């Protein structure tokens, strides 16, 4: 069983690399952000709280995040292991995670802040079917329209310049120190996130001593 944490600033490719890593290894991708976005879309009580927090430019509180992570991992649908992204984001969450679960490795995707801004501010989302697009590398066939359902694309609420600057500041202040906590265990792997996704994935697998990536059909 393999259990990995993937970390990096917004736009570093955590979701993409997690999916590629899980693709042929039987691992489960657990995205805390996706869980929260699902609740927002379904208008649950939790979703309403998350939306208010995001609109205020703040991060969801530790107690709620830890509760969501614990509930998700307690489903035990990860027979071969998991890759978790979007968690932990600060020292308290890291301590909770290390006390509760054994971790086999931490993948740290490194990306300069100017590239973060370029990537994040180019992201678009279909609010109807959930498809993600990027105006740099993954443009829709018809500008502003989803290729799958034709719905008009939107910018995520947390992808505005103001929200991005707040998230970068919060990441540097609270999340980067988490890497130092993990480094004491000597299992942090720093990966350059600037190359194409397949090259980044190859670097991750090489660092973790995993088989080369083979896309599943």
UniProtKB/TrEMBL annotation:
Localization per Swiss-Prot or TrEMBL: Cytoplasm
PANTHER family, sorted: NUCLEOTIDE KINASE
HAMAP family from the UniProt entry: Adenylate_kinase_Adk
Region of interest (LID), residue spans: 122-159
Positions annotated to bind Zn(2+): 126, 129, 146, 149
Family note: Belongs to the adenylate kinase family.
EC number, UniProt record: 2.7.4.3
Record's keyword annotation contains Lipoprotein: no
Residues reported in the UniProt entry to bind ATP: 11-16, 123, 195
Function, in words: Catalyzes the reversible transfer of the terminal phosphate group between ATP and AMP. Plays an important role in cellular energy homeostasis and in adenine nucleotide metabolism.
The protein, known as: Adenylate kinase
Keyword Kinase: yes
Record key words, sorted: ATP-binding, Cytoplasm, Kinase, Metal-binding, Nucleotide biosynthesis, Nucleotide-binding, Transferase, Zinc
Entry text on domains: Consists of three domains, a large central CORE domain and two small peripheral domains, NMPbind and LID, which undergo movements during catalysis. The LID domain closes over the site of phosphoryl transfer upon ATP binding. Assembling and dissambling the active center during each catalytic cycle provides an effective means to prevent ATP hydrolysis. Some bacteria have evolved a zinc-coordinating structure that stabilizes the LID domain.
Enzyme class: transferase
CC per GO annotation: cytoplasm
Domain of life: Bacteria
Any one Pfam family match given in the protein's UniProt record, by short name: ADK
Pathway assigned in UniProt: Purine metabolism; AMP biosynthesis via salvage pathway; AMP from ADP: step 1/1
Residues involved in AMP binding: 37, 58-60, 86-89, 93, 156, 167
Location of the region described as NMP in the Swiss-Prot/TrEMBL record: 31-60
Family matches, as InterPro entries: Adenyl_kin_sub, Adenylat/UMP-CMP_kin, Adenylat_kinase_CS, Adenylate_kinase_lid-dom, ADK_active_lid_dom_sf, P-loop_NTPase
Recorded GO MF terms: AMP kinase activity; ATP binding; zinc ion binding
């Amino acid at each position: 069983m393999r259990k990995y944490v993937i970390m990096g600033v917004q736009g570093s490719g955590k979701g993409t690399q997690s999916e590629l890593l899980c693709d042929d290894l039987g691992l489960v991708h657990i995205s805390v952000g996706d869980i929260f976005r699902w609740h927002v879309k379904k208008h649950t009580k939790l979703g309403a709280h998350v939306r208010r927090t995001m609109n205020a430019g703040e991060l969801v509180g530790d107690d709620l995040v830890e509760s969501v992570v614990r509930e998700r991992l307690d489903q035990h649908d990860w027979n071969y292991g998991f890759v978790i992204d979007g968690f932990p984001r600060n020292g308290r969450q890291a301590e909770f995670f290390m006390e509760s679960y054994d971790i086999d490795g931490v993948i740290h995707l490194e990306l300069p802040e100017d590239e973060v801004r370029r990537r994040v501010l180019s992201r678009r989302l279909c609010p109807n079917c959930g498809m993600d697009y990027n105006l740099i590398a993954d443009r829709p066939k018809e500008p502003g329209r989803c290729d799958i359902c034709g719905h008009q694309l939107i910018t995520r609420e947390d992808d505005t310049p103001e929200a991005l600057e707040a998230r970068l500041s919060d990441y540097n202040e609270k999340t980067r120190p988490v890497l130092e906590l993990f480094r004491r265990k000597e299992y942090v792997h720093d990966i350059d996130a600037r190359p194409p996704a397949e090259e980044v994935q190859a670097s991750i697998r090489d660092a973790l001593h995993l088989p080369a990536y083979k896309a599943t059909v």
